[in-house]
């Protein structure tokens, strides 16, 4: 499994952004991201990532209400319950993830339009090459996409 920290393999026309942020994420969370994407394929999967001290250590799968291969939408009640449980244990919401079952790990126009958390890191798992899933991370603010470098922690 490949977890690129830079934007290798992306289309050249989409490299017109700079990596301006770094995110620390546990390797087991990256593996769980891929497993969730594979389990939900050919539909998009989605969920939230949390942790403490700016380190992502936990993955929270969510239901994709629209059950679509090209779009995701999380259930508001599931989100509310998750945010309550995060507060109860002192964790922080640090990321949002979803999969692209048949396209590259780059935000679609819909992903960009529906990105409502500019301080959050967005992770996309691509299953375009099923034998070599890829995960990339981004920040999206004011319709601008910035790559985020991932640092894997054990």
Structure keywords:
alpha/beta, 36% strand, disordered N terminus, 154 residues, single chain, seven-stranded mixed β-barrel
Radius of gyration: 14 Å
Can you give the mean pLDDT?
A: 89
Helix-residue proportion? 10-25%
Distance between the termini: 15 Å
Structural class: alpha/beta
Poorly predicted segments:
1-17
Strands of the largest sheet, in order across it? 1-3-2-4-5-6-7
Largest sheet: 7 strands, mixed, barrel
Number of helices: 3
Task: Please indicate the percent range of residues in DSSP E strands (runs of 2 or more).
Answer: 35-45%
Give the overall shape, derived from the CA principal axes.
globular
Order of helices and strands: EHEEHEHEEE
Counted beta strands: 7
Structure write-up:
The chain has 154 residues and is α/β, with parallel strands linked by helices. It is built from three helices and seven strands. The protein has helices spanning 27-40, 76-89, 109-113, and strands spanning 19-26, 46-52, 55-62, 92-100, 121-126, 134-141, 144-153. It has a seven-stranded mixed beta barrel. Helix 3 (109-113) links the parallel strand 4 and strand 5. The longest helix has 14 residues, at 27-40. The protein starts with 18 loop residues before the first strand and ends with a strand. The relative contact order is 0.25.
